């Protein structure tokens, strides 16, 4: 367990999947939790399970971020951890099939939304009592290094946020702050969404085998395993780690088996 007692954390897209698991993990580790999303009904069960506070908002909306910043300042007086997790892929396709509206939507959430998330985090962390300090974690994907031909917008955004992460880390360090920024790159994770895809397929066993076979470790990551990596990067044990990217993909991108 990470020691996050006394820290205030905010997770975007915290109503399901990796986001929800991270809210649960950081709360168990002692942090005071806020999380965002657009589904108030789904948020209710997260709040009931963890005591975390839900802030209904959309990451691509600057006005929502102004309201979130005001809430954090007024009610908590600090921000120590930001997990930029929210993302979408609906409507994606290949370079030939994707339409402009879908491209714009995915970029607005996965890239502009992450930029606005990080921008707010840096502003809040600069004002922390005792000096500018904090940990920002961006949820990228192994697709940042192994693009998918049928998910051109998703792959593009997940690569772009790595450059954003490194730029932010350099800026915060050269500004003399102790604000860190790192990225995680999950492989295939067994979320409710993936289980739904498996269950709806004509042959669920074959579909599960396909997903599990994508990693040399022959299984999918569990959401709790991804949340544990976020908790480590949020903790003081990672105090000298910034501008880094962490694969959590069961050796998928490690190399080739050979012949």
From TrEMBL:
Alphabetized GO MF terms: oxidoreductase activity
Record PROSITE patterns: ADH_SHORT
Chemical reaction(s) catalysed: 2,5-dichlorocyclohexa-2,5-dien-1,4-diol + NAD(+) = 2,5-dichlorohydroquinone + NADH + H(+)
Annotated SUPFAM superfamilies: NAD(P)-binding Rossmann-fold domains
Top-rank taxon, per record: Bacteria
Keywords, comma-separated and alphabetical: Oxidoreductase
Family membership noted in the UniProt record: Belongs to the short-chain dehydrogenases/reductases (SDR) family.
Protein name as annotated: SDR family oxidoreductase
Organism the protein comes from: Sphingobium algorifonticola
